[in-house]
Structures are given as C-alpha cells and as structure tokens.
Amino acid sequence: MSTDILLGRLRSLAEPAVLHHSARVKLSIITTLFYSASGWSTPWRELAAFVFFGAVRTVLGYGIYLLLVLFIAYPAAYTVSYVSGVFISYYLNARFVFREKLRLSKAMQFPIVYLAQYLIGLGLLYLLIEVAHLSKFFAPIVIVVITVPCTYLLSRCVIKGRSRTNQQL
After folding, report:
1. I need a labelling partner for 82 at 20 to 30 A (CA). Which of 2, 68, 88, 144 fits?
2. Which residues constitute the domain of residue 26?
C-alpha cells in the first residue's frame, strides 16, 4: 500500500462525517441516555454530555496522533491531531451535546474556543506554579477542572448563539 493511500485513509479517520453508521447509532444512543436522565436540568445534562464527548474526542485525537506519528514528525503529528480534534469537538458538541445543526460559520468560529481555553490555561498555569507554588505536575489537573466549565460555556455560546444560551441558563 502506498504512503499516499495510507495517509488518505488516516485523514478520512479524522473526518467525523465518515463515522461508520453503527458508531453514529451508538453515539446517538449515548446522547439519548444523557438527555433522558430524570431530574437533570438541560445545562447539567449538556455538561455531563460535554464531559463524556470531550473524553471521546480526546481518545480520537490521541489515536490520530498515534497513527500519524508513525509517518511524520511528532510536532506535525501533534498539530494535525490537535486541529483535527478541534473540528471533531465541534461535530460532537453540535450534534450530540447541544443538538444543533452543523453550520460552517459556527465551525469556523469554534477554534476561538480552544484558543481561549489555551490562553486561560496558560495564565492559570503561571499563577498556580509561580504564585501559589503548586506542583508543576499537579497544576494541569487543577486547570482542567477550571477550564472545562469555561470551555463548555464558550462552546455553548458559539454553537447555540448568545441569545439562546442566556435564555436557557
């Protein structure tokens, strides 16, 4: 098998639209379970689904990285997997977390969420390590706990729009 064909297949793995039908059905079932949880208000169900699908996105992104690093330098593999992960995240969040139609305009705005998450995390990393004297090994865990709700709110705002987000919170 030629490298071009193999890389083409790897690229297609990064495209959420080519998820196998059974995978989409399973994701839909999981989403239905999140939304049928009794007693949970919509924002809490969405947040639980956001965390779950964030884990799914992380596993997919890591898989893309592992496949690509076999063929290209690790910085390039990381970059491609990270960028792919942003768009996989948009797909999963729009389709399964917030149940919105996919829109190109929203997909193009979505990377801003991850830029904001990165900048918030970087600032917090400095504060936690340099000011609060927290361990450089433990600080990233604290940052995840802080940034997940921020990322959820920013994602919700981009995907659903500001007015619909404010009405439902």
Report:
1. 2
2. 3-168
Q: Residue 97, exposed/middle/buried by CB under 10 A (0-12, 13-18, 19+)?
A: buried
Question: For the range 37-42, what are the long-range contacts, defined as Cβ-Cβ under 8 Å and sequence gap of 24 or more?
Answer: 42/168
Alpha-carbon distances of 140 from 10, 143, 160, rounded to whole Å: 30, 5, 29
- Return d(Cα 128, Cα 64) in angstroms, integer: 31
The pTM for the full model equals 0.69
* pLDDT tens string 34-49: 555 545 567 788 889 9
Residue written as token pair 């491609």: 80
Q: What is the Cα–Cα distance from 94 to 159, expressed in whole angstroms?
A: 6
Cβ count within 10 A of residue 56: 15
Band of residue 140 on the pLDDT scale cut at 50, 70, 90? confident
| Number of structural domains in the chain | 1
Reading the block at residue 85, the tokens are 């992960």
